[in-house]
Amino acid sequence: MPHEIDCWITLGSTYSYLTVMRVPQVTESSGVQVRFRPFHLLQIFKEMNYFPFPPDAPKTRYMWQDVARRAELYGIPLKLPVTYPASQSIVANRIALLGLREGWGYEYMRAAYRNWFVAGKETGSEPNVGDSLREIGQDPRRVLPLANGAEIDGALMAETSIAKAAGIFGSPTFCIGDQLFWGDDRLEDAIRWAKYGTLANAKV
Amino acid sequence: MPHEIDCWITLGSTYSYLTVMRVPQVTESSGVQVRFRPFHLLQIFKEMNYFPFPPDAPKTRYMWQDVARRAELYGIPLKLPVTYPASQSIVANRIALLGLREGWGYEYMRAAYRNWFVAGKETGSEPNVGDSLREIGQDPRRVLPLANGAEIDGALMAETSIAKAAGIFGSPTFCIGDQLFWGDDRLEDAIRWAKYGTLANAKV
Known about the structure:
The structure is a homodimer.
Chain A: E1 3-9, H1 15-28, E2 32-38, H2 41-48, H3 58-74, H4 89-102, H5 105-117, H6 128-135, H7 140-147, H8 150-165, E3 173-176, E4 179-182, H9 187-196
Parallel strand pairs in A: 1-2
Antiparallel strand pairs in A: 1-3, 3-4
């Protein structure tokens, strides 16, 4: 049985772009499977009365500097400036959740991020949503009513409640049992933990 | 001329413990010199009306889980729970600043962290302050009036203003020109940048 990691992800997150692009390569040879679990982090932030990256804050400027450097490190395309925050990121989260149920969720996440971070189309809004769906062979006229319907919205909120109860406060967060690994820069640590149950003295 | 990194550090920070303990080994073979610059991050947090790790918050619980895993990874001793936050961390910052001027600052930082994170004595308060100074051969009766005097206090506040103007919002932050690297987990990146001016395609 393969080792499994839950990757809690919200599609409006910046660092999560790196994770979406890196997962196949990083996990390929590890024998570890990553299960993406979209949730709506903004809901948790609202309940905390907190937003990590307000416009013009030093931390926000740093975040873009850091994301850009790491994208270059990994050879991941990025064109700054990126429109942020994405006001309709909840739509992207709903589509991803539906897509993962139907088997095309990962392809949607990649397309939505590429259209946002490279082509300059804000995620969750048009034309990103329609373009991303069509690129992966999905019909927006079928998908959007389902994604924005009561069932998927309820499922996204249920997942968000589970994430909050697990102590999750950021995206991506990798979970293995009660061990949380927050941030794209902890992906390798999470894989190590999934395989060996420790970070120390482990061959990767 | 060796490559230089400014390491902005506040002695009340948890992740900075890892950096203080790791710097000699990580920098030894790299030809990069790290210059520690103590500042009082709590002052910046106060001005932002923000504190990253309130008691019982999910992020705070995560921080200790993450610090403990990484300490184990690096073979750095740690005995939980650690008293946090340290109410008198400003005293530790003043002593470190004085000590760096006089040539014993790094030894003090190591001793103060070891006494805090291993021996359970809160940094900046007694008995940590006196014990740490005596362990490194410094007389508290000479050091403390100097450290708590107007000159060092003014110097610490001046350094804090410089850090804030540079966009620093956390500790440790490694600076190379206008490039900031926030967090102990960016130490290797900072060294790479200091040597090669990029993270990509660089041999470490």
